[in-house]
Amino acid sequence: MIPSLNQVDSKTAQGILANLTLGILPRPDIPESMAESIDPRLGEKILNELRVHLRLKRNDNSPRALGKLYGALSEEMAKLALKGVDLNVVKARLGQQGSLSPSQYVIKFTVTFVRFGEKCGISRQQVESALRKPDAVEHLRPEHFGFDLEKATSLFLKTQTTTSAPSGLYHLLILTDRHGYTLDVLNAWRVYPSDVDLSTATTPLDVFRAFVETFGTTFRIGDKEKKLFMYEKLPIQTDEEMVKINTLQGVERLIQGQVVGQFNNEMFEVVISYQIDYANYTESLRKHGLKVTAITRGKFKANARIYEK
Amino acid sequence: MPSALLYSTNSYLKLYIQEIYRGDVHFVWCSEQCDSKTLSSYSPGALTAPSSNPADIYKELKRDVEGRDRHSAKINAQKARFTGLAITWEQAGEITTSQKDDIIYLVSTADFSLWRPLLYVIPRTSAIEPRLQHVPMAGRAGIGIEYKLPDLKRSEFEIIEL
């Protein structure tokens, strides 16, 4: 597209285009000490070549024309800079840190979602659509908690309305693991504002905490007992100490939980751990007019995924 | 008397790139008023050009994001800016080649929603004042006063989405 740069090596051409671009843009966001000027005749020639390619008149400086010119300059720079780069590696890196646009992730469903989420009236299409265009997303960054980058989770939220249920509005809450540019859907829940106190919730994580507060059960990891563990390092000596669930005597409850963690020098690093009481949860769904498919009963259906060191 | 607050409109992606790749140090252009059109016509701030007025920048960017305008001058200028900056930062040794690739890929493939505008509200504290760089007339689109702040820390401003 730019014949003037045909004989120039890629790195030099990138530098020329970058300096030309930053020189013509309003408000370039660069300290004057870093701004390098290029030969004005070369700059003029490159811009004219781009204008010819874009079929823009030489004196057309309308916002539309400038928009096309800036678009072409960024495309040319990107083409040169990313030539020979394995884009899947770049995508995986960005995906892992939660930087990709939602539409760029590959979505996979776990067995837990099939066994619990789907049976509680949430379809895969519904989840996929919410992941592609969420109302809110929160990519939890494990490095902020002193954890390895690969222990990454994301929460997505999408408000849904149905006409069939008496109380139509609910928030679809989706919990995923992030592996490169893949999102593994761990589970999804319908969060009805009439059932869960969302008065102080402003983020997907707040909604998740409120949901677990309502439908979760307390359990113990090591010495600590609570409803939700996230990115915590707990001292544990034996396997028996690992997870203990408080069951109400004489009441059979179906509990689904997620324990994701890793042993490290007698410390159990909990990425995320919670137990949802499905007896209570499905009962509340039925009150909202939802037909819930029978879920196999059992005392504890922990879906534990422990990464051994 | 200088205003107690400064205002700046920036895209979400700019905030993100500066947070992740620039050590959470933010380069901003700012004005003493959020919307120069609401000022008296005899006030110096009223002379700020629309292209430098935070409220106008916000509205234009929001309109282009919502309209998913592929030829938006505002969005394409930002794409070009961050692609150019990534190359410049890498050539100056300020970021690695992988980070340059990441920024360019991110900017080239970003959903429109990532370009949504954010309004920064910056309290004009004694720590900010000496770092404000007055933009000379030649660098301004109008005669209203504008500043550059090349080293704004995240703890020094609030973000509003309208």
Distance between the termini of chain A: 52 Å
Q: Tell me the span between the first and last alpha carbons of chain B.
A: 28 Å
Strand-residue fraction of chain B?
15-25%
Report the largest inter-chain contact. Answer: A-B, 43 and 41 residues
Task: Count helical runs of chain B.
Answer: 4
H and E string of chain A: HHHHEHHEEEEHEEEEEEHE
Radius of gyration of chain B (CA) equals: 16 Å
- Helix proportion range of chain B: 25-40%
Give the helix/strand class of chain B.
alpha+beta
**What is the alpha-carbon Rg of chain A in Å?**
26 Å
Largest sheet of chain A: 5 strands, mixed
Q: Label the overall shape of chain A.
A: elongated
Strand tally of chain A: 12
Query: How do the helices and strands follow one another from N- to C-terminus of chain B?
Result: EHEHHHEEEE
β-sheet strand percentage of chain A: 25-35%
Number of strands of chain B: 6
Helix content of chain A: 25-40%
Averaging pLDDT over every residue of chain A, what do you get?
A: 82
Briefly say what this structure is.
The complex is a heterodimer of chains A (309) and B (162). Chain A has 309 residues and is an alpha+beta fold.
Please explain how this structure is put together.
The complex is a heterodimer of chains A (309) and B (162). Chain A is α+β, with helices and mostly antiparallel strands. Helices cover 32% and strands 27% of the residues of chain A. Chain A has a five-stranded mixed β-sheet, sandwiched between helices. In chain A, α1 runs antiparallel to α3 and α2 (40-54) packs across α3. The model of chain B has no long low-confidence stretch (mean pLDDT 89). In chain B, the strands form two sheets. In chain B, strands 1-3-6 form a three-stranded antiparallel β-sheet. A three-stranded antiparallel β-sheet of chain B has the order 2-5-4. Chain B is globular and about 50 Å long. The longest helix of chain B is centred in the middle third of the chain and has 19 residues, at 73-91. By secondary structure, chain B is an alpha+beta fold. In chain B, α3 runs antiparallel to α4. The chains are: A alpha+beta (309), B alpha+beta (162). At the A-B interface, α1, α3 and α4 of A face α1, α3 and α4 of B.
